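hey all, quick one before standup. I had two proteins in the batch that finished overnight and I want to keep them in one place so we stop losing track of which output belongs to which input. First protein below, input sequence then structure tokens straight from the run.
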Amino acid sequence: MYASEDITFNSNDETLFGNLYKPANVATYPVIVVLHAANLGERESDFYDHLKETLPSCGIGVFIYDRRGSGESSGDFDTCSFNDLANDALAAIYMLREKNEIQRVGLYGISQGGWIASLVTSMFDEVAFLIMVSTPAVSPAKQMLYATRVSLQEAGFSKGIMEEATRLRKKVDAYYRGKLERDHVQSLLQKELSKEWYPYAYLPQKGLLPEDKKKSKWYYELDYNPITCFKTIKVPTLFIFGEKDVYVPVHLSIEIFKETAKNGDVIFLKYNNVDHFMNMTDNKGRGISKEYKHNLTRWLGRFNDN
């Protein structure tokens, strides 16, 4: 059981709207602030349901807010940076720490949200713990090259097509970096637009590039290095991955994070037959993995003083 409190808070010039899901029948409790996957910016996204339905009954509060430019929150998501999103999360932490019933605040980041969560933790000493779910250890550009190869492979295309598609993606990235002209790259996209493999390669729809690349989200994030800030993190950290993740190079990410972790209190969990959003992919179960939810709850229990 839980109670829900509507909360509005400010981050610089933006107004953000969220909900705090509170455990019932306890005087104090820890809270996780949930940081969003790239395409799940609204607090009502179905993925977040398992957190607000599972954790409060175990004595853990959950705060979920509409990301800037999403849902009721003001702002422009398309032109904000990771630092902007991190500052929004910091504002949420400051707001929650003013509540007497909250023991401590930790962060839960899913996918891109894991990058934001680790960035916030590197900026703010009083984040109590960090949970990174399906978070790549490589840059967004390298992540999408990986996702392109997997997408094409699963669709049955040849290695030659995979290489052709990734070469084209690299040229698109070169345009955003200012190394190739828009007209040249767009002409290459137009030549391949009718190919059967094009929709599987995460290339621009209709083969069009923005005239002003600074108005595109990709310009601000493609070369972000998640390891830079992770090296500075000293709080207890839980990494969670699904073996069937088609967006993240799971084994490589675990290897890189393990090599760079400076904190001894880091745990890595990897689940077979589980995808990017912790859904079961075999016939033994449906929906969010019960094993994932059980281990998440058990790990969080160490931060509850009750």
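OK second protein, same deal, sequence then tokens:
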Amino acid sequence: MKYDITLERIANCYYNLGLERARLRDLSGAAELLKKALHYDKYQREARNLLGLIFFEMGEVADALVQWVISMNLLPEDNLADYYLDEIQRKPAILRICSDNVKRYNQALDYAQHNNEDLAVFQLNQVIADSPNYVKAHILLALLYMKRSDWVKAGKSLYLVLKIDRNNPKALVLMDIVKKNTGRAEIEQNRLKNVFSHRKMTDDDVLIPQEIKQLSPWSVSLLLVLGAVIGLFVYYLMMLPAGIRSANTKNNQELISYTEKLDAANQKLSNMEEQNSKLQKDYDEAKASLDRYENQNASFMAQYQSLVNINNALSTGDILTAADAYIKLDPSSITDESLQNMLSSVKSQMEGNVFQRLQELGTAAWNSGKTEEALRYYSLSVQIRREAENLFLLARLQQTMGNTAEANQNFDAVVGEFPGSPYAERARSARGY
């Protein structure tokens, strides 16, 4: 428990540093500090929400949504992430524009990699027109301008990046290159030299001391010798014995003090070694817990993404994609309550009407002579929900295609699993017994 409090304090320190960086528009630096805060305390809600806001400000909407969804799943009560997600859901145009911009950015990147700079520049200008804060698009556009030696336009793009994220490392490096090629670096260096330079002193600046009375060399020598003799006499007569005694007493006291300090230091070292051993043990336990959480979190995100993909495919009518993703799910591994609710909704649709629709598409394909296509539809329908009808149709198609062993196996399944259905007798007849 003591070590958990220490981790929480470290996370809070990183969060405060990240918040200060964010206020200064150093978004890249703030993001790194907030990631460290979350490394030490995954429940640091303010750090995760602020990281999402920074991603959103830099045009990375998908990354922002991931942080807010995780925040809501970890701490759903009184969470600002709920407000952010609600605002985006009430404005679906934002998600559509951001999704389109990501596709256009990737297309521009592909154009740039295949030496189609003109098309890449055109795409990036469209992206920036829709999302002026998309930092990655500005930097890629600046690189394309630099490749053309159009340093002024490259500088303008990098200037916009530094307005959004004042210490963006990539933009700073590229801006140095742009300044060297435009002469700005030399101008700024000369300005610094002028600011920190000093003018030379002139004769008018020299302070001439007032004239003093000079002593003769003999007088000076006599005074020095006399002063030295008197000083030695007083020292040996009065001060030396007392000084020796005082020095001995002081040395003894210092020796006692050093001995006491050494004993205290040894005791402190022993205590620190014990504390260090305990802290190391606590650290190992905390690291093991963190590793387990990261693995669970990765599994959660993969399951969440699969369910979202199935829902998206169903909403667009792409039942083949939905069916392929659904049969790959492992429902037993989904233990999160929110994901179980999503799974229940998806399962209701897939086993309610999608499997029947696949069966109908298979029959239509078979009637059109597209046996391979029909085989795929029937197979997906059976994998989603085994019924006497779709299982019998699959077996008949396999029999027609010459896959006798597989067909007989499915005929036997119809008879064994659905003995009271009308298809059981038809399966026996087709099977030949």
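Flagging for whoever picks this up: The longest helix spans residues 217-315. Confidence is low (pLDDT under 50) at residues 195-213.
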